[in-house]
Amino acid sequence: MSAILEVKNVVKNYGHNGHTSEILHDINLEVETGEFVAIVGFSGTGKTTLINLLGGLEKPTSGTILCKGKSVTAPDPERGIIFQNYSLMPWLTVRGNVAVAVNETRKDLSAAERKAIVEKYVEMVNLSHAIDKRPGELSGGMRQRVSVARALSMNPEILLMDEPLSALDALTRSVLQDQILDIWTQEKKTVILITNDVDEGILMADRIIPLNIGPKASLGPSFIVDIERPRNRKTMNHDPAFKRIRNEVSHYLYEQRRVHKEDADQNAKPATELPRILPAHALREQSEHFAYETSERSYYGI
Amino acid sequence: MQKLLNFSEKLGLTLLIPFIKMAMKDEPGKQMIEIIKMLGLPAAALLIFFSLWGLASKNIKTSVGTLPSPSYVWGQAKAMVADARAEKLNKAEFEFYEITREKLYDLLTKRRALEAAGQSVNAVDRERSQFAATIQTRIDELIAEEEALSAQIEAATAAAEKAGLTDRRIAPYETRVLKFYTDSKSSLISLLSKNTKIDNAIADLKSGDEKKIKSADRKRTAYENQLSNPREYSGNGSIIDYINRSIITVLFGFALAAIIAIPLGILCGMSKNFMTAVNPLIQTFRPVSPLAWVLITIQIVDGVFVGDKALKGDLINNPFLHSAITVALCSLWATLSNTALGVSSVSTDYMNVAKVLKLNWFNRIIKIVIPSAVPYIFTGLRITLGVGWMVLIVSEMMATSRGLGWFIDQQYQNNKVESLANIIVCIFIIGIIGAILDRIMFILHKSVSFNDEVSA
């Protein structure tokens, strides 16, 4: 197997002329065809920026991204993106939303064939009963399934998922995880899943890569998930391999966070000195906030 | 039932909801209180309003007399409705006369043609005499109706005298209707008499006396010429005509505004440079009063459609264009800026999808930008129609386009208390139509927006 996606020394800055902040620093990644890679990290570390770079929605400040050996400069249907906020067109029905993608990417097919493809993918995410409904009439989980169907219907070689399940409740989430896994087994796409849930990563992926805390976020070492598929959600909690990987990844992430905090504390210097005056009504809130912060610290053992 | 409930919620008919819920036996007690509130509170407010008005009407002196009281205005409103009915009758009678005249003239020309070709005219003559008989029947009907109505008026007058209501005015409606019957009857009679005279002339043609033949021929031609001339309708139109004309004008102006404003708004929203270029113009023209627009519109339209090119239709004429274009000029700005806003604020999420799909520029506009801007566009259209309706009245006054605005101006020129009451009636009519138009736009807006953020 060869690498379908190669990321080499990618740096991404935002801002101009001296006000730049480096979001991603020296990202290196190789993903093989058919591989399921999960990138986990705390929120605000630049995960969405990374997906946008891979998808071609943004350009790296330096470094190269190669997809099948060719440089990625613009978005392309061969890299389907499943967005965190679904990004469905609210004025179109489920059918319409999927059809937009199919009509655009499979122009060579006849109308009837395209219709069949739309229906096939809607069926695949079990939404045939709601095919003529609009996103406004669907639950969050259903909307994300439409988004999955839309991304798959473009017949992409790589599927980029940007925290697709983070806005869903736990139950819906697990149902959708299973569904995505089923589809992955059927379609054998290369998948890059961005998530903030370590368990989700272990359940679904072949390999977990932590994204270090930004700014200047870079990728951590790969953790191979060598648990046999199909993985059973119920029994997995007791699987020693699962526990080991989970511990390793979590430990790595918390360690990262601790180091980051220490760095931040040492370098903490407010940009401008603010007068230390608080309005009277804020005093109580401040003390409560303080109490919350200390308890949070003790929770993480920091 | 649930469907009906959803339907009324969609239409914003909040008044119906408690009734439907009550029929569904959903907390009937609570619904009862809700109904009492919803009907009672506005009723109380109306009562207070009308009593204040009644009070004011006793004390406020206008230049033409005291301010009309609510009951006086109500009486005037009824008189206007009666006028409209009378007008309708008048028009119907006029049209009947015209159709009859044309038919008769047709038969006469046909007869002439047959004569010239040397064919038999018996069939045409038979048809003509049958037609004359039907006209006679209609005349008889009119006489009967006339008699019945005048008897009714006499009885009413007598009853009023008996009751001591000395100054009771005989209802203007009945009197006018009576007049129409009389007029209609006499025009039909004169039509018929012309027909008879032509018959006599034709008979004289066969007499053999050369002098007689010459005069008969002249007479026949003269009568036939008289029959060939259509009459002008003399009625001034009624309130119904004014309302119809105003609504058509405002809708025409509204359509014009939409046709101009939506494409321009899309351009403004798509291109920042275009927006920067035209923004000063928009900001300058937007606050200009309709009074200024209407004058320049009149000048330009009358300059373009001048002399033979002047539009002389019943509906589409120069004054119609003046007021419709003024409506468009004053009202298009809301749609323009809302469209621009909607187009420029299309979510980056949708644009990302468009990029991944590699939609071209045209498809991006058609499939993503415009649909996502539709709710904004409709917000703009709703405002545009509201502004347009307000502007319409003043533009009709200035342009003498025979709608409600023109009617109000006419009443103002009359300088009488009745006219003042008519103006007040018109104010209510304008307000109610404006509210209905707004409600229609609200429903349209609601039906196209995908998130329920429409305010009532």
Nutshell version of this structure?
The complex is a heterodimer of chains A (about 300) and B (about 450). By secondary structure, chain A is of the alpha/beta class. In chain A, about 40% of the residues lie in helices and about 20% in strands.
Task: Walk me through this protein's architecture.
The complex is a heterodimer of chains A (302) and B (456). With 302 residues, chain A is α/β, with parallel strands linked by helices. Chain A is built from nine helices and ten strands. In chain A, the strands form two sheets. In chain A, strands 6-7-8-3-9-10 form a six-stranded mixed beta sheet, sandwiched between helices. In chain A, strand 4 (62-67) and strand 5 form a beta hairpin. The longest helix of chain A is centred in the last third of the chain and has 28 residues, at 240-267. Chain A starts with a strand and ends with a helix. Chain B is mainly α and 456 residues long. Chain B has helices spanning 2-11, 16-23, 28-59, 70-117, 122-162, 172-205, 210-228, 239-270, 272-285, 290-304, 318-344, 348-356, 361-399, 404-414, 417-448, and strands at residues 61-62, 65-66. Chain B has a two-stranded antiparallel sheet. Mean pLDDT of chain B is 87; it is low at 452-456. Classes of the chains: A alpha/beta (302), B mainly alpha (456).
Largest sheet of chain A: 6 strands, mixed
Relative strand content of chain B = under 5%
Strand order of the largest sheet of chain B: 1-2
| Count of extended strands of chain B | 2
Radius of gyration of chain A: 22 Å
Give descriptors for this structure.
heterodimer; A: 302 residues; alpha/beta; 6-stranded mixed sheet; 4-stranded antiparallel sheet; disordered C terminus; B: 456 residues; mainly alpha; extended
